[in-house]
Amino acid sequence: MKTMTCKQLGGACDKEFTAATFEEIAVLSKKHGKEMFDAGDQLHLNAMTAMRELMHEDGAMEKWMKEKRDLFDSL
Ligand SMILES: [Zn+2]
Predict the structure, then answer these.
(1) What number is the average pLDDT over the span 18-35?
(2) Which backbone phi and psi does 34 adopt, to 5 degrees?
């Protein structure tokens, strides 16, 4: 099992997610992000806006996912 924080996954807080695979941790992070979004948490809303800006570039999503996956693998 490996642990990454919300921040390490492009979020805004130090909440930790633990999972065996990157796919699992991505799901946990997404679920948490949605909860924070629904709660109107400003820090997470800002992080999501920044992420959306970042994703305008071609291939940015793939690049971002690869970076996070490499980080997960290196833990
Ligand atoms: Zn968070």
Answers:
(1) 97
(2) -65, -40
**Residues measured by CB to lie within 5 Å of ligand 1, the ion:** 6, 11, 13, 15
The pTM score is: 0.89
Q: Environment class of residue 46 by beta-carbon count within 10 Å: exposed (0-12), middle (13-18) or buried (19+)?
A: exposed
- CA-nearest of 17, 53, 18, 15 to 36 is 15
Side-chain half-sphere CA neighbours of 60 within 13 A: 9
Per-residue pLDDT tens for 30-63? 999 999 999 999 999 999 999 999 999 999 999 9
CA 15 to CA 28: how far, in whole Å? 11
CB neighbour list of residue 33: distance below 8 Å, 6 or more residues apart: 6, 11, 44, 48
Distance, CA 18 to ligand 1 centroid (Å)? 14
